[in-house]
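Good morning C.,

I know you're traveling, so I'll keep this short. The sequence:
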Amino acid sequence: MTTEPTRCDREELRTLFLFEELNDDQLGRLCDEGRLERFEPGYVYREGEPATCFYVLLEGTVALSRRVGADDVETNRTSHRGAYAGAMQAYVSGLQGAHYRGSLRAVEASRFFVLPAETFSAVMREWFPMAVHLLEGVFYGTQNMQARINERERLLALGSLSAGLTHELNNPAAAAVRATSSLRERVAGMRHKLGMIAAGPYTRQTMETLVGLQERTAEQVSKGVPLSPLEAADREDELGEWLDEHGVGEAWELAATLVQAGLDTDWLEGVAAAVDGATLEGAVRWLGYTVETELLMNEIEDSTTRISHLVDVAKQYSQLDRAPFQVVDVHELIESTLVMLSGKLGAGIDIVRDYDRSLPRIPGYPGELNQVWTNLIDNAASAMGGEGTLTVRTVLDGDQVLVEFGDTGPGVEPQIRNRIFDPFFTTKPVGEGTGLGLDISWRIVVHKHHGSLLVESEPGDTRFQVRLPLTAPEGEAEGEQAGEHP
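The tokens, ready to paste straight into the viewer:
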């Protein structure tokens, strides 16, 4: 609520730091084209309304707030005479028709000097042309610089992620290539042994028995139960001794293959019962090739399945072919990010997963949440210098999901803890960071998802805590908006 505007007093304006250097004519123009207004407690203007006026506080107390979801979050409160807000950038070319980027509220009955945005723009350009040019340059220069740095940051992140994904893909791909080469050799050996068996003195019944043994052996390979190293060594000794006793050459090498398939001396006794002593070695080796063939095919299947899984993870991470806003499982997003950053984390960082798998799915923008996880994990890895423990914890916290990333790095110093979410602020050496990761993460979590991003830190225990609501607000989140202070 406002009272009837009144004419200002140039001498009162002169007492304000904004106007103390103006001459009488300039103060007179401000009084002629401006006005004094008194506002009772309540909103002076609201975020999103056309930015029509520049407000200077003369007396009272005001609070500036930003809209986050359905709530107004207070960002600043002051009683300082001369504090200003409103159409602060009306003089910048190309910003005509702009809107207020925050809300101004009178906490108590307050009095303002109010200047129309058009007048504010005109006097700035007439009285301070050089300053206006400099401020315009800073304004647009900062915008352009941030856009380019954002693009560069995304390219660097893409390169890092691509390197990690390539590293992860290389292992199963190389394993599949090696297994395929070995498989070709084993199949050739099996064909050779099959020819020898076919030319040997085997009856039809013996051949049928051997073929049956081959089928059961292949089935046994797929059902084999992994043994402990000690159990495997004992069984290899047992099979090696049996093969030696029955005149089978290179017994220890063949025993290791048979044990890997889960076979034992009972299986060997079954083979011995099906053939005579003269042909036992050939039969055992032929069946050994069968075992190796099955093991290699299992290895190829595991490798290609791993590659397929990595491709799925990459799609999950990038959210290709998916709607931007959806209901998601935070664990799936975190896991896809950890896989993509595995090359960055390296072997020196242990990952501890403390997940509450009973958490419900939450509404959000998965591609942007992945960017938040990426920034927080990457910062943790950098802080630990490649060695330490990364703990990822999820838990239900009231009506929000808490996702916490903890690291064992040196911590964030108390004097800079309140600045780490500011744009361009970084603790990394020159050339190793732009200071945009945490700022972007904060905007995504707070503005886009209506949650919170906090940090708790002491040496050896730093925790970044992301809280996200369980339900979506009425209407989608607005885009990123720049900060503003009275």
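Safe travels,
E.
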